[in-house]
């Protein structure tokens, strides 16, 4: 889509972005790219474009991705039904193999490819590489769903040092070599904390935190940890929002300065959030 704007207007837009570019220059930003925000091909291309732009203006971008819908699709193709307990996929040995194949293979490499053809320098790794994510069983009812016990960000730091965009798929392993399916929100929170990131941006298929979950006009633009805890108690944060906000609080606890939850379905929401006054979702900060 071509916008009819003059060169002077273009220059004005770039000038307004300057303080934000200065703010994030040389800083680490972790982007959690959710499975549901990946479905629309055109939006996916824009997210990759925005990620490359941030990378080229000197932001150290780390992309952590999930891929729930594609895993479900692949399981369906082999005639295996997806079963969920408390929003988490029950993962037997065969499902763990499919998860590894889809996340660390198909999705991870296709995102690397998209970043590369847009002029980024990207490298795909999984939580298995360099023991990036060590895990144990979260709940025996869930099988090979992992609870993170340790994060080793050395492989990510090495890639950042050589000016790559690390693209991380969220599978982990234990000392026996068992492979675990790891929740991408949780993995992103742990990785952002270990990297002492400037911010964690969670791109998903919701507008952000709503005071009334049925009314998109009730978006809460900014919230502190203690305010969020009150909203857990009074039931404002409920259902699928619970693990998302819990991961935000976990990231803040682990040393991330701020966490954004935003709607990955909004065109260029990543740039709106990082390079403008406007913001595109809910910002969670410490007290």
Account of the 3D structure:
It is a single chain. This protein is an alpha/beta fold and 287 residues long. The chain has a single domain, classed as 3-Layer(aba) Sandwich (Carbamate kinase), CATH 3.40.1160.10. 41% of the residues lie in helices and 22% in strands. The protein is built from nine helices and 14 strands. It has an eight-stranded mixed beta sheet, sandwiched between helices. Helix 3 (68-77) packs across helix 4 and helix 6 runs parallel beside helix 8 (241-253). The radius of gyration is 19 Å and the shape is globular. The model has no long low-confidence stretch (mean pLDDT 91).
Major sheet size, sense and barrel closure: 8 strands, mixed
Number of helices: 9
- The residue-averaged pLDDT reads 91
Order of helices and strands: HEHEHEEHEEEHEEEHEEHHEHE
Q: What are the SSEs and their pairings?
A:
Layout: H1 7-24, E1 28-33, H2 41-56, E2 60-65, H3 68-77, E3 84-85, E4 88-89, H4 93-117, E5 122-126, E6 133-137, E7 146-151, H5 154-161, E8 165-169, E9 171-173, E10 179-181, H6 184-194, E11 199-204, E12 222-224, H7 225-233, H8 241-253, E13 258-263, H9 269-275, E14 281-285
Parallel strand pairs: 1-2, 1-11, 2-8, 5-8, 11-13, 12-14
Antiparallel strand pairs: 3-4, 6-7, 9-10, 13-14
Helix pairs in contact: 3-4, 6-8
